[in-house]
Amino acid sequence: MTISASTHNKYILIFDADSTLVKIEGINELAKYCKKYDEVYQMTDTAMNGTSTIPFQELYKRRLDIIKPTLSQIKDLGQIYLNNKVAGVDELFAKINQRKIQNHICSGGILQALSPLANSLNTNSVFGVKLHFNEDGSFSHFDPSSETSQDYGKNKIVKQLKERHPNKEVIFIGDGQSDMETKFNPITKQIDSNYSNYFIAFTQVEPREKIMEQADFVATDMFHLESILNREFGLELGKRF
Predict the structure, then answer these.
(1) Is the Cβ–Cβ distance between 201 and 175 less than 8 Å?
(2) DSSP assignment of the chain, as one string?
């Protein structure tokens, strides 16, 4: 079957960042600065696996209160992201952009640190948690209105994008609980077409059994992900026209 250009453009691709586009969890890297890695890692892991009993935004606040990252450290984290991209991510995004397929980064990571990564991949937009700093560069607070700091915050962003583009379907790619949940209505907890239509679990960095079990597809690396996008969705990435 020949896939038309309009079929290619029926999809919106949304990517998580940490442990998906990059090989690290940014907030854990920040924790190394203050020698609180073990404590912060445990909180991050329970959030990613969906086993935490603490509301996500409260968990986010607790981790930042422990770390208190400076503006300088956030800038350093932006470079660490660039230095830790997973293999094949630049090539995949070049092919996605060559096909003019809408793509976004939607992450619980820190917005100011994610921006260089988003710029390097030429994404349409990046959603993350904005931090505020004092005049001396010390940490002040995070913006609680940042959707991805909230429970089901990624769902809100997906829904907003679908409302702007009602004829498009969303494919969400990520490794964690909040990524997988984007297929579900936050109130009914049922799969809802107003949210992500498909979820692809990305397992190269951090395979999570619970997340994989609920995925439509599982991608073991970026090259496998490209194959899935071509085979299952007809995106024809890398094809010359």
Answers:
(1) yes
(2) -PPPHHHHTTEEEEE--BTTTBSS-HHHHHHHHTT-HHHHHHHHHHHHHT---S-HHHHHHHHHHHH---HHHHHHHHHHHHHTBPTTHHHHHHHHHHTT-EEEEEEEEEHHHHHHHHHHHT-SEEEEEPEEE-TTS-EEEE-TT-GGGSTTHHHHHHHHHHHHSTT-EEEEEESSHHHHGGGB-TTT-SB-TTS-SEEEEE-SS---HHHHHT-SEEESSHHHHHHHHHHHH---TT---
**CA 190 to chain CA mean position, Å:** 21
Q: What is the pTM (predicted TM-score) of this model?
A: 0.91
Residue boundaries of the structural domains of the chain:
5-233
The pLDDT value recorded for residue 170 is 98
Q: Shortest CA distance to 13 belongs to which of 122, 88, 110?
A: 122
Each residue's pLDDT tens digit, 68-78: 999 999 999 99
Summarize pLDDT for 17-28 with one digit per residue, the tens: 999 999 999 988
Q: What residues contact residue 227 under an 8 Å CB cut-off, 6+ apart?
A: none
What CATH number has the domain spanning 5-233? 3.40.50.1000
**pLDDT at position 58:** 84
